[in-house]
Amino acid sequence: MTIYALSSGSGISGIAVIRVSGKNTKEVIKKLTGSSLPRPRVATLKKFNKNGKKNLIDEGVVLWFPAPNSYTGEDLAEFHVHGSRAVVNAMHLAISKIKNCRLAEPGEFTKKAFQNGRINLLKAESIADLISSETEIQRKQAVKIMTGKSSDRFNSWRENLLKILSHVEAKIDFPDEDLPKNIIKEIQSKSNHILKEIKKTLNDQKVGERIREGFKIAILGPPNSGKSSLLNYLSKRDVAIVSEIAGTTRDVIETHLNLDGYPVIVSDTAGIRSSKNEIEKKGIKIALKSAEDADLKLVIISAKKPDFAIVFKKLLTKNAILVVNKSDLVKGKLNSKLKKYEPVLISIKKNSNLNKLIKKIKSKLKNKFTTTEDILITRERHRQNLINCAQHLEKFQKKKSVQDFDKAAEDLRLATRHLGMIVGKVDVEELLGSIFNDFCIGK
Predict the structure, then answer these.
(1) For helices 429-436 and 121-132, angle between their N-to-C axes, nearest 10 degrees
(2) Scanning 25, 142, 247, 301, which has the fewest C-beta atoms within 10 Å of its C-beta?
(3) Location of each CATH 3.30.1360.120 domain in the chain
């Protein structure tokens, strides 16, 4: 089938780009323009009509990319028209009338590019990340993956393991032949070196995932301590309802922020206290779960009630900041028991000391993103495949005798398969749906 879709952003714009890819692309160009094909890769001004008739839709530019030198590896065309909904809808309707043409599914153009060998799976994912990037650090990471640094490393490991596997299989196929002793040592040395590199890569504090998905900050504390007000302040808009009534927030409220270039997901949680209300109890349970999953916890209490429960003391780990709100209402010194936690005294109502809190949050973020130069893993599926690869290599290392060579070969095959799953070197059809469904239509 030939697919088509709007590849530029939806809504009113100066220019809209409609992309067409597939065997019938030539027919689509001829019917819409009522003329022969333009020169390849040359922007050509044309009038676009409904199926070659005189009913003019718009006048714009067509670009023609013959296979295989196109983004998808198929015949591909781009129609640059005026960006009104009426023009785009009329163009879509005209293309849909042409035989074997249908609207593209999310990510289908990039999926075709992968299937036709134009890009590997890592590059496909980095394209999706680049499109959805909201901060500079996310953009830089996506571009870095697109350049092929990660895929080169994964492919290098895989190729070296395949060489090792060939030596092991040679011993299985020719059991009477003695392999040189230096080859056996080389097999052990190379596989052990790769295993160490993979383990080093896995020990990256999940920086790549944090950059791609966002650094998770959970705001926790007792009711009426100012959690929702703090979320609204950081968001610069009213995300959460602020009320004097205790227990207003029952579920987790999340907002995505760009905090000085760092992608952040801030969560406002239910006030933690003893409660008999079943709904509130569930909200408190979710709040504590958010604390476990968070990269940073903002434990906020009211200066009017400085004594806080043991549950909050447990939350004050190294990845936590104690925030004392409503400090303007307290006369005299703060409770001495709180000083050891190095609290930040603020007043959201008076807009006091909030810059100091944000500065401390940024400091925590900066420390978490210090290893960005060697990022290879940006998704959970990359990590899981590397973990599985390492496990099979560890099993391979334990097999020393000739009698274990059959099992050793299987360990190596599985290890190389998991590396292949990352870059798409093996059959990964079951993964494609979940990966490309995250794309926008038209890409």
Answers:
(1) 10
(2) 247
(3) 2-104
**Class of the domain covering 2-104:** alpha beta
Only one residue has tokens 């998770």, namely 216
In the chain, CATH 3.40.50.300 sits at 214-368
H helices of 133-226, in order, are 136-146, 149-173, 181-202, 207-213
The answer to pTM > 0.85 is: no
CATH number 3.30.420.10 given to 214-368: no
Give the tokens for residue 193: 């070196």
For residue 350, the tally of other CB atoms under 10 A from its CB is 12
- Cα(first)–Cα(last) distance of the chain, in Å? 16
The dihedral sign for the CA sequence 417, 422, 425, 428 = positive
d(CA 339, CA 442): 55
Q: What is the mean pLDDT of residues 379-405?
A: 84
Query: How far apart are alpha carbons 233 and 50 in whole angstroms?
Result: 52
Q: What is the distance between the alpha carbons of residues 407 and 370, in angstroms, rounded to a whole number?
A: 41
Among 58-62, 84-88, 164-168, which stretch is predicted with the lowest mean pLDDT? Answer: 164-168
pLDDT in tens, 193-247: 999 999 999 988 888 888 888 888 888 888 777 888 888 888 776 665 444 444 4
Residue 25 has pLDDT above 50, yes or no: yes
Q: Could you tell me which of 297, 294, 302, 230 has the C-alpha nearest to residue 273?
A: 302
CATH topology of domain 124-204+377-436: Four Helix Bundle (Hemerythrin (Met), subunit A) (1.20.120)
> For the chain, where do the domains classified as CATH 1.20.120.430 start and end?
124-204+377-436
Nearest to 72 by CA among 130, 24, 118, 11: 118
Greatest pairwise CA separation for the chain in angstroms: 89
Using DSSP's 3-state secondary structure scheme, residue 323 falls into strand
Tell me how far CA of residue 441 lies from CA of 12, 103, 107, 365, in angstroms: 17, 9, 6, 33
Residue 320, amino acid? A
Q: In angstroms, what CA-CA distances link 79 with 7, 17, 59, 313?
A: 10, 6, 10, 61
Alpha-carbon distance values, 74 to 1, 77, 409, 416 (Å): 11, 10, 39, 30
Q: DSSP class of residue 148?
A: T
Percent of the chain at pLDDT > 90 equals: 35
Decide if 223 contacts 271 (C-beta within 8 A).
Answer: yes
